[in-house]
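Human:
Focus on the backbone:
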Amino acid sequence: MRAALILLLCLVPFLIFAEGRCPPGQYPIGGSRAPGCAPIPAGGSGVAEGPRATGRWIKTWGAIATSSTGASGTATGEVKKSDAAKNAVSGCAGSGARDCRVSFTYKNQCAAAAVPSSGAPGTSFGSAATEELSKGVATKLCESRGGHGCEVVYSACTEPKFEAF
């Protein structure tokens, strides 16, 4: 029994220093001349795990063009703001209007247009993260401008495009 106790006491120092005096979760590095500790890598491979980028998202534009005659044109999903504006004006002019101009542009979101049913002039535009929210923004703006019974006449979203590598 005494011999076993002596043997155990002799081994304890080797067991305690087996990890080179490193705290839990770390391992010894540097050898006997310059000892140190480093964290044990997760998963054991030493390489960070997780998703890798396989492409990029490209933001897109939308536009609404209107004229004094009530004609309108829209564009969505254009990479350039100028292309969205040009296509919206072209769509408006395609219905025969000559004074089409861009009334509203939006980027990477949803937009809506609301008009008052009470005969008050003007169209109110709103944009938000979802189509429903953009309708609410346009309707509230229309009503705040004195419109009664405002009606949403247009809504759409311009979604980002994914370009794969």
Observations:
- Residues 56-164 form one domain.
- The first strand starts at residue 26 and ends at 29.
- Residues 14-19 have pLDDT under 50 and may be disordered.
- The beta strands are 26-29, 36-39, 55-58, 61-66, 72-78, 101-107, 110-115, 124-128, 151-157, 161-164.
